[in-house]
Every structure is written in structure tokens, then in C-alpha cells.
Amino acid sequence: MPESPVRLLSPRLTVLVATKDEDGTTRAVPFSWVIPVSFQPPLVMVAIQKGNKGTLPNLRRTGKFTVNLVSSGWAERAVKCERVKHPENAGLKVKSIDWDVPVIEEAGAWLACKVRDILDVGGDHLLVIGEVVKSDGEAKDTILHISGERFVRIGEEVRISRHLNL
Ligand SMILES: Cc1cc2nc3c(=O)[nH]c(=O)nc-3n(C[C@H](O)[C@H](O)[C@H](O)COP(=O)(O)O)c2cc1C
Hints:
Elements: E1 12-13, E2 15-20, E3 26-31, E4 34-38, E5 43-49, H1 55-62, E6 64-69, H2 75-84, E7 94-95, E8 103-104, E9 109-119, E10 125-137, E11 143-147, E12 150-153
Antiparallel strand pairs: 1-11, 2-3, 2-6, 4-5, 5-10, 6-9, 7-8, 9-10, 11-12
């Protein structure tokens, strides 16, 4: 089967979305269909496959999550979370913040969010809109997801003038 045309929109940031399971443990799994959708209020969107049995029910139940930016130094452990679900089982640590859901200690940057909406736009993913209530850190050495098992490290930063003062 040919690759879906939406795969052309890559690479994208790789993040771990952390949520609380019913037993109070922290679940964190990788996502890359994650984009900003508003400056004010600060809103982000995570597209989650319909039928997701972990993160989505947690988001519906608790309304809270954190988005943790993955760096290349711990990317393999982050990807392992897809299978093992809990960061400790992938050799990662969780760190409490002043929010119901912790962040991943290894993450150089994170955003704590509350669910604002979950939209069904008729595709095979649901659009989870999160309002950022706090954030910290800087995106450093981020690893971008192309598709499947293909990733790319962020390269050299370049400046391109937009001539906005003209
Ligand atoms: C790098 C990477 C990016 C992913 N991006 C997404 C995504 O944006 N949306 C999605 O629904 N699943 C995505 N997945 C798959 C989920 O991580 C996978 O379905 C996971 O098992 C969901 O866990 P959960 O059921 O505990 O929520 C991605 C997986 C990897 C490895």
C-alpha cells in the first residue's frame, strides 16, 4: 500500500505525552502529531488515533497531561515507552511539578496542559486540544520523527530574514 500523503508533513517533534493511569501511575508514550494552534491562550494539539486505550481514556478521565520534548540522547528510551508505557520501565525518571501529572526528568523542555476540547473531525485520529498552564526549559537537541522507525536529529540553525519592518 502506498504511504499516506499526510506523511509528507514531516519531520515533526517527538514528544512523550504523560498522563495518569487509574491506579495513579504515570503513563508516558511517544507522539509526533503535535503542533501549536494558538498563542493566546496558548493551545497545543495532539492527534491521537481513535481506539487508543491508554492515553485517551486518561485524558478524558483526568483532563490533564504533560508534553515532554525528546532529545536525541534519550530517544531510544522514549521510543521504548511505546511498548512499556511507563517511563521507569524504559529507564527514564519522572519528576513532580506543581501539577497533577509529572514530567520526564530527562526532558529539556515540557508543557503542562489541561484538556480544553477533544474534536472528531471525521478522520481516524481525534484532535486533543490542550491549554498550556505552565512550561519550562528549552528545546535542545530535539529528535524529529519522519515516520515508522525513521527519525532525524535537528541540524544547524539558520536565520532567514522576513523583512517584517519594511
Ligand atoms: C515516534 C512516535 C510517534 C508517534 N506519534 C503518534 C501520534 O502522533 N498519534 C498517535 O495516536 N500515536 C502515535 N504513536 C503511537 C503511540 O505511541 C502508540 O499507539 C502507543 O502505544 C499509545 O499508547 P497508549 O495506548 O498507552 O496511549 C507514535 C509512536 C512513536 C514511536
